[in-house]
Sequence to fold (221 residues):
Amino acid sequence: MSRFHDVLYRFRPPPLLSTAVRTVQILAGLHLLSTTVAELRICSGFSMLPTLSHEGDCVLVSPLPYWSWFSGSSKIRGPKRGDLVVASSPTDPSATVCKRVIGIEGDLVEVDPRRGGKRKWIGEVDEVHVADQPLGGESRSGSVSRRLDSEGRPMTSRRKGEEQWVKVPKGHVWLAGDNMSNSTDSRMYGPVPLAIIKGKVLARVYPNFKWLDDPIREVEG
Fold:
């Protein structure tokens, strides 16, 4: 028995290697936890005022609301209108954005709902167009619009003095900041693929813990 113990002792990994292995295991566990259960993130900037502070709020983000428990596949359900989500930036995959879902696939959304003072959505249309206009400013007279077919493919046309709408293609959502006068969102980069949605923002953890509910209400068009 003593000889067997001697053999085991001889093959024991050095302390430094054992520490490295434990560190890797802990990091792998934390990564698995953050990608499948929940994680804390800092959301800063002016685009989500007054819901979140521009100085940076710590929020709880989870992909679980978009999991299908029966198939085990993620993002089967997809976000709902009004969900606050974190997504990879469509313009910079190394960065993330925190925005509000105001349209899901098949919805017709007004590009700049500030015109009427309310966010609107209308479902199931065949053809729409969206105007190119500067963010946070007034729309330009005679602006060139991009006309989109039912799959979100651009077509060319011109419109003047009309409300501008876009249909959200299949597998996409339309994102916007709560502070639309100071937000870079789907008005600039278009509908966002579901594949880059990281999770739903469930609550503001710090400062002043608060569950974040859905402020969007359906209105008659």
In short: The helical segments are 2-10, 15-36, 186-189.
